[in-house]
Write a structure and sequence with these properties.
The structure is a single chain. Helix 6 links the parallel strand 3 and strand 4. By secondary structure, this protein is an alpha+beta fold. About 40% of the residues lie in helices and about 20% in strands. Helix 6 crosses helix 17. The chain is built from 17 helices and 16 strands. The strands form 3 sheets. Strands 1, 2, 3, 4, 5, 6, 14, 15 and 16 form a 9-stranded mixed β-sheet that branches. Strands 7, 9, 10, 12 and 13 form a 5-stranded antiparallel β-sheet that branches. It is globular, with a radius of gyration of 26 Å. This is allantoate deiminase. Its cofactor is Mn(2+).
């Protein structure tokens, strides 16, 4: 009788604890509204408390970790990024992962699964931001991965994974501070030369010095050792907001990425004759600002109408021009002048050019034609021009096997959440660059896009619905559960 009483009391206690836990979540408490019951059969395996509520809370928490007081800015190894490292590492350990931080400030969380010697799945995204950023870019992919693994940890499934899984929060993807993208993922993929350590920011602080400032000793040899052995890696998967309007237009929360556009970043320096704004006649000026203005307008015209500028030959076909017409985008995002005074004709103007296209040969043809136009205009205006290639990344085609598995995972997640799904999970290209571009040099890659409101990104207006975050986490969980 005593044994029965104890067992019955224990069951009641567990039920009371579970009820309190459910009711502590606003979204879950709402399930009890109306008829006073909760459909555990429908929601019991969807883990909303972790994959939605906690994930959303963590996104907002990380969004407050900033170097600026009025907006989000977290660049490579800045004070805010060091605080973010501690927060992310704590979340990884909460999910049952073994953690460490490498010499480039990448945060790693790993579980060996059932076979520690098998090739590992790497999954993650970047924790750095642009200036005046949104809270979802990069961070969503990190938190979705951690949340999915936390569910598996709670269910006792981590050690049953067929292969090791490692979440990586990359220290730099945006390239804001040093104007060199993929510092984190590039080091892991082994595509960065040791000379990268000598690259400096606008204050002449080098990458090497900022690493040492954070009590991390790094040498050219140890930097190169950050590269993973390709034989130890099975693949790389990244969950990321779309940063475009397609998923919202088709009314789908998730989409599979089939490829990423190639990207080139140029730095153009125009030098002229500095002088007094009131005394130098217009006909005698060698004004780099006026020259830069013309160069930028010509760039815009070229990128809007590539067929008007490019010559057809063995290297430039009509199909290439058609591809460029639909995918080519060119942007001047930064301009600086010297000495930058309202009553002084500047002596120097520097601006950046960002060129992206799905077709690599087409992108190269555009760069060649743009460079030719720049030199001709500068010569005509009697100013000098220097064009520096600061970054070049070829287009990446995602692995068909990984894409198929991600598509199945997305379909499974949406079906579990919504019931019957009539439409197929969309497949789309990415015009934005991602860590997957760098990781493609190491292993096969796959990407899952998440719908964002208005396609807006790199802005405080960036927004993802809570239930879309839930869908992304559930899709990640489904992918891990069926990992081969």
């Amino acid at each position: 009788m005593m044994s029965f009483t104890f067992t019955y009391t224990f069951i009641l206690f567990r039920f009371f604890f579970f009820f309190c836990f459910i009711m502590s979540s606003p979204s879950c408490a709402s399930m009890f509204a109306g008829n006073g019951t909760v459909d555990l059969e429908k929601n019991g395996d969807l883990f909303p408390q972790i994959l939605r509520d906690e994930a959303v809370a963590r996104l907002y928490e990380l969004g407050k970790v900033s170097d600026a007081s009025g907006y989000l800015e977290r660049t490579f190894l800045s004070p805010a990024s060091i605080r973010a490292i501690d927060v992310i590492r704590k979340w990884m350990e909460d999910a049952g992962l073994r953690t460490w931080v490498d010499q480039m400030g990448n945060v790693h969380g790993r579980v060996d699964g059932a076979n520690a010697n098998a090739e590992a799945l790497l999954i993650g995204s970047h924790m750095d931001t642009v200036v005046d950023a949104g809270i979802f870019d990069g961070s969503l992919g990190i938190i979705c991965a951690i949340s999915a693994l936390k569910v598996m940890h709670i269910d006792g499934m981590l050690q049953k994974l067929r292969r090791p899984v490692e979440v990586i929060a990359f220290s730099d993807e945006e390239g804001v501070r040093f104007q060199t993208t993929f510092l984190g993922s590039g080091a892991v993929a082994g595509i960065l030369p040791a000379t990268t350590l000598g690259v400096s920011d606008k204050r002449d602080v080098t990458i090497e010095s900022i690493i040492k400032e954070n009590s991390i000793e790094v040498t050219g040899e140890s930097f190169l050792q950050l590269k993973y052995d390709p034989k130890s890696v099975w693949g790389y998967v990244e969950v990321h907001i779309e940063q475009g309007p397609v998923l919202e237009q088709v009314g789908f929360p998730l989409g599979v990425v089939k490829g990423i556009a190639g990207q080139t970043r140029l730095k153009v320096t125009v030098r002229g004759s500095q002088g007094h704004a009131g005394t130098v006649p217009m006909s005698m000026r060698q004004d780099p600002m006026a020259a830069a203005a013309e160069l930028i307008v010509v760039m815009e015209s070229l990128c809007k109408n590539p067929g008007k500028y490019l010559s057809y030959d063995d290297h430039c076909s009509s199909s290439m021009v058609d591809s460029l017409s639909s995918s080519l985008v060119c942007t001047v995002g930064e301009i600086s002048t010297w000495p930058s005074a309202s009553n002084v004709i500047p002596g120097q103007v520097t601006y950046t050019v960002d060129i992206r296209a799905i077709d690599d040969l087409g992108r190269e043809a555009v760069i060649y034609e743009l460079s030719k136009q720049i030199y001709q205009i500068c010569d005509k205006r009697s100013v000098s021009c220097i064009i520096e290639n600061k970054h070049d990344a070829g287009a990446v085609i995602c692995d068909s096997e990984l894409s198929s598995q991600l598509k199945s995972a997305a379909y499974s997640a949406l079906k579990r959440m919504e019931g019957d799904i009539q439409d197929e999970v969309p497949t789309l290209m990415s015009g934005a660059g991602h860590d997957a571009m760098a990781m493609s040099h190491l292993t096969k890659v796959g990407m899952l896009f998440v719908r964002c409101r208005g396609g807006i990104s790199h802005s405080p207006q960036e927004h993802v619905l809570d239930n879309d975050i839930w869908a992304a986490g559930l899709a990640t969980l489904s992918f891990l559960e069926n990992l081969q």
